[in-house]
Amino acid sequence: MELLTNFPLLSSLAAIIFAQVIKVPIQFIVSRKLDWSLVTSTGGMPSSHSAAVTALSTGVALEHGLDSSLFAVSAIFAVITMFDATGVRRHAGEQATVINKLVIDFNRFVNEAKDFPKAAEKEKQKKLKELLGHQPIEVFFGGLTGILLTLVLAYFFM
Fold first, then answer.
1. pLDDT in tens, 98-137
2. What is the CB neighbour count within 10 angstroms for residue 47?
3. CA 117 from chain center: how many Å?
C-alpha cells in the first residue's frame, strides 16, 4: 500500500479535486449561475491541469530536493503541460467557438431559404466543445493552487 503514502501523487490528486470543485463557486461569483457541470469539465478558473502538475513538482521537490532528477522531470512535465494549456488547447477552443458560430449562421441561412425543402426530422448537430484550454491567468492560478495546496498538505502530513 505504498501508493497510499505517495505524497506527490496524493497532493496532485488533491489539487485536481480542489481545483475542479472550486470552479463552481468562482463561476457563481462571476455569473450568479450555479453550474455543477464545471466539476467534470475542462477549462475554466483555475486550471486543474496546472494545479496537478505544480502539486506534483512541489511534492517531488519536498521529498527528493530541487537537485534531484525526479524534480527535473516533474518540473519539465509541468512546464510542457502548462504551455500546452495556454497554447494548443486554448487555440483549439477558440477555433471551436468560431466553427460553432459558423454552424449557427449556416443553419439560419438554410432555414430562411425560400425553396429549401423541409426535412421530416432535423438532424441534431453536435456542438464542438469550446472550453478546452486556459487563459494564462487561469494557468497561473492553477499552478499557484497546486503549490500552495501541496505546502499546506506537507505541513500536516509530512
1. 787 888 877 777 666 554 454 444 444 444 555 556 778 8
2. 32
3. 43
**Is residue 24 a contact partner of residue 39, using CB atoms and an 8 Å limit?**
yes
Q: Are residues 123 and 139 in the same domain?
A: no
pLDDT, position 10: 95
Alpha carbon distances (Å) from 53 to 56, 69, 119, 130: 5, 16, 50, 23
Give yes or no: residues 92 and 68 share one domain.
Answer: no
Cα separation, 64 vs 71, in Å, equals 7
- pLDDT tens, position by position, 23-43: 999 989 989 999 898 888 877
CA 49 centroid distance within chain: 5
The grid coordinates listed for 102 are 459558423
Q: Which domain holds residue 74?
A: 2-86+135-157
Task: Specify the pTM.
Answer: 0.67
Say if residue 48 is in the same domain as residue 125.
Answer: no
Rounded Cα gap, residues 63 and 5, in angstroms? 12
| Domain identity same for 117 and 51 | no
